[in-house]
Amino acid sequence: MYSQILKIIPPERLRWQEPLSAHTTLKVGGPADLMVFPETIEEIQQLVRTCREDGIPYMVIGLGSNLLVRDKGFRGVVIKIGHSLNGLYISGNEIMAEAGIRLSELSKKAAAHGLSGLEFAEGIPGSVGGAVVMNAGAYGGEMSQVISAVSALDGSGNLCTFSPEEMAFGYRSSIFQKGDWIVVSAVMKLSPGNREEIVAKMQEYARLRREKQPLDMPSAGSIFKRPPGVYVGPLLEKMGLKGFKIGDAQVSTKHAGFIVNCGQATAQDIIDLIRYIQKRALEEHNIVLEPEVRIVGEE
Ligand SMILES: Cc1cc2nc3c(=O)[nH]c(=O)nc-3n(C[C@H](O)[C@H](O)[C@H](O)COP(=O)(O)OP(=O)(O)OC[C@H]3O[C@@H](n4cnc5c(N)ncnc54)[C@H](O)[C@@H]3O)c2cc1C
């Protein structure tokens, strides 16, 4: 079944039965039948075409910081883009970044060049690809404010370019969440700024994160999207859920909007906790909580 893939990716960049818990910040998730680490866009194109021709399911992941993989794992090929495809080019006020670059690295590079607009991104532990797909944001900023173009592969491996209007960005959403798109690079238009002021802003955001978020425990950041006019953390606190546990999955005692893995949590513990919170929020406050984390894998 996988013989064609072995011709595309050399053995040292393939892993069989790879536990996805090792590739997600929640540290849960069963094995992928096969995980591949492509290094070029051409390799990804060939992978997509081969999987399509041979009927093999595939999924792309970045740095796994917004992913909840079920305990049975993923049947098919996981294409891991975080850590590879990490080119970054700066020209004037524009930065072109490949999908595998860490957001923290991107925002530090922008700051070093006196470019403002990505200060919000420094503490978001994802890749550029994952951040485009999620329209990641914080402290009043989000990817949609700076992105001027994105290149992505379609389900047949064809390279397409998107303008901001075509990306249909919304709150933690984009066109790339629908269909088989694989984001390979993004161009960001920034503004010239004072380097010291940019760095000071980034340091202030980092301080706020350390103060308010359980950064020393495995999590996926905010587990739910923010419903209009509602702050999820204070809501769950009011409902007495801070510190509430199912198995080893816990509503963080530091920030009730985060679910943390206290050590041995399974994906099912986390899913059960999500469902329990959703049910109570609906019953007690008539509020629909939608997971921000992407739940994937075999049911
Ligand atoms: C401590 C902590 C703090 C966080 N704070 C924030 C925050 O302030 N704001 C915020 O918005 N998020 C935050 N997050 C969530 C997360 O970091 C972001 O959503 C991030 O953008 C996800 O990037 P990733 O590379 O880890 O994506 P992954 O988790 O690997 O993937 C997320 C989704 O994108 C898809 N995907 C990933 N890469 C690609 C690609 N190249 N092409 C197509 N699809 C792709 C995956 O299939 C999946 O559906 C936080 C997470 C943690 C753990």
Explain what this protein looks like in three dimensions:
With about 300 residues, the protein is of the alpha+beta class. It has three domains: about 80 residues, Uridine Diphospho-n-acetylenolpyruvylglucosamine Reductase, domain 2, CATH 3.30.43; about 120 residues, Uridine Diphospho-n-acetylenolpyruvylglucosamine Reductase, domain 3; about 80 residues, Uridine Diphospho-n-acetylenolpyruvylglucosamine Reductase, domain 1. The chain has seven helices and 18 strands. The protein has a five-stranded antiparallel sheet with strand order 6-7-13-11-12, with helices on one face. A four-stranded mixed sheet has the order 1-2-5-3, covered by helices on one side. A three-stranded antiparallel sheet has the order 15-16-17. A hairpin with a 7-residue loop joins strand 16 and strand 17. The longest helix is centred in the last third of the chain and has 19 residues. It is globular and about 55 Å long. It starts with a helix and ends with a strand. The mean pLDDT is about 95. The structure holds flavin-adenine dinucleotide (FAD). The site of flavin-adenine dinucleotide (FAD) has 35 residues, from strand 3, helix 4, strand 9 and strand 13.
